[in-house]
């Protein structure tokens, strides 16, 4: 019996799975910008603004410089910009480098339901393409929203099993988002889009083992490059399996023990995953944010100084210690995955921006001394965006605070003003006041641009 395309099967056995890849391709080809609700368009602009700020702000990070130097001898013609820098390179390498840059601070957006960082793979691919093949701001925004939706839907279908076994889900699903978004801008037909998604399926990248190293940021960069490659090949008729996602030996069955295809095909065009996107106020792993939020609040409410503190006790969601249980981080990147370091800098500095995750800060004796007083205990009942903090002081007082929803979560989202302040902090050192203001305005005005690639050229330095 043919599958009912209106009612996709949930948790289907591999040999009876619905035509997930084709249904997704059909939706992408038919999707129209005019059908997007105003709130979805606005969230797309917020996502782009946050992504661009992160990419420009981290342009001088060592990981970005190394990647540029390593790839330069093998790069093609200067077709696209390296954001926040003067260099230009070919489209494929620009997608890679800008994807690395956008994620290396670990300050980019997060789809909390799956912990995917959606914008990096998608925006890095399509902005590089937009400098080579001009597209309007409206088409660019539409492609960004579609790409985010695709990667998050696929992530929903396999989370948490896929993530828990060790895949870095941003890289493994981001390639689908990039392929879908680039395919939309290239005007692929249904068959070509099926091939693009199949080519994406055969290129998963990203192991959680790499967290705390430069290679974590390589994952969204490579996903952007791979997704872009997939769409370009498909455009020329390069074939793939037509069930790259759902076949018995396809992506979903190979990379996860759990599959819910309804999450991919259900409510296409109605349910928009970008509305579940969130933006980080702190430059570290998202699961640490509740602890930072609680420590900052206690510090500010009680005027705490590190010398007054005897111990700090955290009760956290299980994923916190699984992802960020590094007790003795050695580098700034390592510190982004240490709930102990993050609690310490939150109490000392009252913030957890990029300066709090420098190599020097991680090795600061005052930070180490307080870090050693922090303990974290798993509470299985604790929600992912919640924490309980208890700070014991030398005078015998014990200060308690429970955070039910961390700032930056979907329940306590960053406002447009918050995002503008974050963007300005990141971009100002690169572009100065006038350049930063112009770039900020361009992000909000994206839909009015005849050539979206102009924003990439504005974002170049020098």
UniProtKB/TrEMBL annotation:
Coiled-coil features, chain-numbered ranges: none
InterPro entries: MmgE/PrpD_sf, MmgE/PrpD_sf_1, MmgE/PrpD_sf_2, MmgE_PrpD, MmgE_PrpD_C, MmgE_PrpD_N
Domain MmgE/PrpD N-terminal: 24-262
Domain (MmgE/PrpD C-terminal): residue spans on this chain: 282-446
Superkingdom classification of source: Bacteria
Pfam families in the record: MmgE_PrpD_C (PF19305), MmgE_PrpD_N (PF03972)
Similarity section: Belongs to the PrpD family.
Annotated protein name in UniProt: 2-methylcitrate dehydratase PrpD
């Amino acid at each position: 019996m043919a599958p009912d395309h209106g009612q996709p099967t949930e948790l289907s056995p591999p040999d009876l799975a619905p035509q997930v890849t084709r249904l997704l391709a059909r939706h992408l080809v038919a999707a129209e910008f005019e059908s997007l609700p105003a709130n979805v368009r606005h969230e797309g602009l917020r996502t782009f603004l946050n992504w661009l700020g992160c990419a420009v702000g981290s342009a001088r990070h060592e990981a970005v410089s190394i990647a540029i130097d390593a790839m330069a001898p093998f790069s093609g013609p200067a077709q696209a910009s390296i954001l926040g820098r003067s260099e230009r390179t070919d489209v494929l390498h620009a997608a890679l480098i800008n994807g690395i840059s956008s994620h290396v601070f670990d300050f980019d957006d997060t789809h909390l339901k799956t912990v995917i960082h959606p914008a990096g793979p998608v925006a890095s691919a399509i902005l590089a393409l937009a400098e080579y093949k001009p597209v309007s701001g409206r088409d660019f925004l539409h492609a960004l929203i579609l790409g985010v939706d695709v990667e998050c839907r696929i992530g929903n279908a396999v989370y948490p099993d896929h993530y828990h076994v060790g895949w870095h889900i941003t890289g493994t699903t981001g390639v689908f988002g990039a392929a879908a978004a680039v395919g939309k801008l290239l005007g692929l037909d249904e068959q070509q889009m099926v091939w693009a998604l199949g080519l994406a399926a055969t290129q998963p990248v990203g192991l959680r083992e790499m967290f705390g190293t430069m290679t974590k940021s390589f994952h969204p960069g490579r996903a952007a490059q791979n997704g872009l490659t997939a769409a370009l090949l498909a455009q020329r008729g390069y074939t793939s399996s037509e069930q790259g996602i759902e076949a018995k030996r396809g992506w979903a069955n190979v990379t996860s023990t759990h599959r819910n295809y309804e999450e991919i095909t259900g409510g296409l065009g109605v349910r928009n995953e970008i509305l579940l996107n969130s933006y980080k106020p702190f430059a570290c792993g998202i699961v640490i944010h509740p602890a930072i939020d609680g420590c900052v609040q206690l510090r500010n409410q009680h005027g705490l100084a590190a010398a007054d503190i005897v111990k700090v006790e955290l009760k956290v969601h299980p994923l916190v210690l699984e992802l960020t249980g590094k007790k003795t981080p050695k580098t700034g990147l390592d510190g982004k995955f240490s709930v102990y370091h993050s609690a310490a800098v939150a109490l000392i500095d009252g913030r957890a921006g990029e300066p709090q995750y420098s190599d020097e800060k991680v090795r600061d004796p005052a930070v180490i001394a307080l870090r050693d007083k922090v303990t974290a205990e798993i509470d299985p009942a604790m929600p992912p965006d919640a924490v309980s903090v208890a700070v014991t002081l030398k005078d015998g007082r014990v200060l308690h605070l429970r955070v039910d929803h961390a700032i930056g979560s979907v329940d306590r989202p960053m406002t447009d003003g918050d995002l503008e302040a974050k963007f300005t902090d990141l971009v100002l050192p690169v572009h100065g006041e006038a350049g930063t203001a112009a770039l900020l305005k361009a992000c909000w005005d994206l839909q009015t641009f005849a050539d979206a690639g102009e924003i990439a050229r504005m974002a170049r330095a020098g």
